[in-house]
Amino acid sequence: MRFKVPKCPQCGADAIGTVERVWGIAEFDPPDEDGTVEYSGYTRILWDSQTTESTANDATLLTCGTHEWGSDLLEPDTIEEAKGVSHA
Ligand SMILES: [Zn+2]
C-alpha cells in the first residue's frame, strides 16, 4: 500500500503503521459478599473489534511511533482491502 504522506510531518521518520482502536475488558475478580469488586489486573483484548482510526476528513491516521498524522491512501482504495478483509 502507498500513502500520500508516508513520512512524519513533525520529525521526518517513516510511518511504522496505522493507529488502531481496539476494545478491551479490564476484568474484575469475583465480587466480595457486599458486592465490592477490584480489578484482577487482567485485560481481555477483543481483537475482533480492531479498526483503523481516521481523521475528521477521512484520512488514515498514521504514526511514526511518537507522532500521529492523517494521510490519504493512494493504493489500494481502502484500508480493508490492504488488510485483506473481505467485503462479502
Ligand atoms: Zn514523528
Task: Give a written overview of the molecule.
The model has no long low-confidence stretch (mean pLDDT about 95). The chain has one helix spanning about 80-85, and strands spanning about 1-5, 15-20, 20-30, 40-50, 60-65, 70, 75. It is built from one helix and seven strands, in the order βββββββα. It has a three-stranded antiparallel beta sheet with strand order 2-5-6, with no helix packed on it. Strands 1-7 form a two-stranded antiparallel ribbon. Strands 3-4 form a two-stranded antiparallel sheet. About 5% of the residues are buried. It has about 90 residues and is mainly β. It has one domain (about 1-85). The protein binds zinc ion. Zinc ion (ZN) binds near residues 8, 11, 64 and 67. Zinc ion binds near residues 11 and 67.
As a percent range, the share of strand residues is 35-45%
Count of spatially separate domains: 1
Q: Helical content, roughly?
A: under 10%
Topology as a string of helices (H) and strands (E): EEEEEEEH
So what's the overall shape? elongated
> What does the average pLDDT come to?
94
State the secondary-structure class: mainly beta
Mind summarizing the main beta sheet? 3 strands, antiparallel
Number of helices: 1
The neighbouring-strand order within the major sheet is: 2-5-6
Cα-atom radius of gyration: 18 Å
Number of strands: 7
Distance between the first and last residues' Cα: 21 Å
